[in-house]
Design goal:
The chain has a single domain, classed as P-loop containing nucleotide triphosphate hydrolases (Rossmann fold). By secondary structure, the chain is of the alpha/beta class. The protein is globular and about 50 Å long. 38% of the residues lie in helices and 14% in strands. Bound molecules: adenosine-5'-triphosphate and magnesium ion (MG). The site of magnesium ion has 6 residues, from helix 5. InterPro entries: AAA_dom, Bact_polysacc_biosynth/exp, P-loop_NTPase, Wzc-like_C. It comes from Salinimonas profundi. Pfam families: AAA_31. GO terms for molecular function: non-membrane spanning protein tyrosine kinase activity.
């Protein structure tokens, strides 16, 4: 385990008690300010309703109970440690996307979730971030499964496979809107990876992909786009995707990710993007909350403008 990450973890542990207390008081303030009674708010589950006049597509019906049972962010209002952890990560990403620094980051609302090696928790992180941001009052999220070699977003959400990014990039589908599906979560839309193609990773690095991401950034500037991507080490095209996104979340796994791999991953990213780290699968020693995984989200100081 690297000393950098260990220090980060230490800082995180120290901050955690204070963080929890702060979030609790923020939550209770939110509940007081909200027009609904607190009890009604806490039992709120996003409604399964059609997604507005533009989408003709059948919404994906995400099984929120199953996600919650599998340790994901809960949208049912139940207080869970993971919700608080992701709320903190999300705040920083939203600040980069829309805050004062956003004008210094190209495509600041486009966030790629990546890692050095497979299985460190990219899809887990991308799906949780999407759920967490979709629960914001005024933010919509588009989750794109660009891990075309090991697509896992639909599987994680427990929904059926449908055509997606690959069909669009190969020209089988003409309009990106035909693979941009609404879901039963009001503010969440998904573009699945679609079927694997022998040129999958090359297509990811294509000019068409670049233009598509730019269009997301410009056409929906108030929307967050989260892109689940293949690992950075060993798959060159993932690094090319980094040129299209304004922010990167690098997922590392406590006790497993090597510092040399983390360094290598960061070197492959675009130095002008905002880069943050999530330490995943941290086992908390908190006696009141045994065994849930925690996260530390730290951000490199030298982000915008390569300062
Ligand atoms: N914090 C966590 N808590 C519980 N389970 C987790 C956590 N992080 C990851 N997992 C589980 O670990 C497995 C690997 O995670 P995930 O699929 O997100 O990794 P990945 O980096 O996307 O892998 P791949 O490189 O195959 O795409 C999954 O079964 C996932 O549900
Ligand atoms: Mg994955």
């Amino acid at each position: 385990m690297s000393s950098t990450i260990e220090k980060a973890l230490q800082r995180r542990r120290e901050a955690m008690a204070a963080e929890k207390a702060k979030n609790q008081s923020a939550d209770s303030a939110e509940q007081q300010a909200a027009p609904q009674a607190p009890a009604a708010k806490r039992s709120h589950v996003p409604a399964a309703r059609p997604q507005g006049p533009t989408s003709q597509l059948e919404p994906f019906n995400i099984d929120l109970d199953r996600l919650e049972r599998n340790g994901h962010v809960s949208l049912s209002g139940v207080r869970k440690g993971i919700n608080e952890e992701y709320r903190e990560i999300k705040r920083k990403l939203l600040a980069n996307a829309f805050g004062p620094l956003s004008s210094t980051i190209k495509n600041s609302n486009i966030i790629m979730v990546t890692s050095g090696r497979p299985s460190e928790g990219k899809t887990f992180t991308a799906t949780n971030l999407a759920l967490s941001i979709a629960s914001e009052q005024d933010k919509t999220v588009l989750l794109v499964d660009a891990d075309v070699l090991k697509p896992n977003v639909l599987n994680t959400f427990g929904v059926e496979r449908r055509s997606g990014l690959m069909e669009y990039l190969t020209g089988e589908v003409n309009d990106i809107a035909d693979v941009l599906y609404p879901t039963n979560i009001d503010k969440l839309k998904i573009i699945p990876a679609g079927k694997t193609h022998h040129l999958s990773t090359e297509l990811l690095a294509s000019q068409k992909m670049h233009e598509t991401v730019d269009e997301f950034a410009n056409r929906y500037p108030d929307r967050i786009v989260i892109i689940d991507t293949p690992p950075l080490i060993g798959i060159t095209e993932s690094a090319i995707l980094a040129n299209f996104a304004g922010q990167a979340v690098v997922v590392t796994e406590e006790g497993r990710s090597k510092l040399s791999d983390i360094r290598l991953s960061v070197e492959r990213l675009n130095p002008d993007m905002a880069i943050g780290f999530v330490v995943n699968k941290v086992v908390n020693k908190d006696a009141n909350d045994p065994g849930y995984y925690g996260y530390y989200y730290g951000q490199e100081q030298e982000t915008a403008n390569g300062a």
